[in-house]
Design goal:
Length: about 170
């Protein structure tokens, strides 16, 4: 399956970049907060930009990390039903879940695009950057999850096909 291989490689590459950016953003966030506390309480000279920059770093790290969690399937899942469905039922459920996620992510991306465009002309008062950058992080996170959902869906379809073919050989 050539398309699946391409989507898997794209998903893996984007996930690697997201992991790197999460680590970088989280480290920058922690260093900025530490520097802000030291500047305020030791030197009595607060870093007035720190709250706005920290907000950006935190939100970007959060939505990038969310995409990593979805890719690596470490998000919250309800698996108590899986015990009753059997192997083929679980594989069929995986297809339905990832197809629904794909549609959900696409709808959210469309709505976020509209919202981000509408808010783009508002700015952070101190750093002067558009507040739209907060919502671009959500767009990026959901776009990454869209790619990962497609990879998961293709994987689930292939696994289901393998289980059906295996059941046919057993019969």
């Amino acid at each position: 399956m050539r398309i699946r291989s391409l989507i898997d490689r794209l998903s893996d590459a984007l996930n690697g970049a997201a992991c790197f950016l999460v680590a970088l953003g989280t480290a920058a966030f922690a260093l900025l907060l530490f520097a802000s506390v030291v500047a305020r309480y030791v030197f009595r000279h607060p870093l007035i930009f720190s709250a706005e920059v920290a907000k950006l770093l935190f939100i970007w790290s959060t939505f990038l990390a969310t995409s990593v969690a979805y890719k690596e399937k470490i998000h919250i899942r309800f698996e108590f039903i899986n015990r009753r469905l059997g192997d083929r039922g679980v594989k069929g459920t995986e297809i339905a879940v990832h197809a629904a996620a794909l549609v959900f992510f696409a709808v959210i991306i469309g709505k976020l695009w509209e919202f981000t465009s509408a808010i783009w002309e508002t700015y952070f008062p101190i750093i002067g950057l558009s507040q739209g950058w907060l919502y671009v992080s959500v767009l990026v996170g959901f776009s990454l999850m869209l790619v990962h959902a497609l990879a998961h869906l293709l994987e689930a379809v292939e696994a289901y096909g393998d289980s059906v073919a295996g059941a046919g050989r057993e019969a």
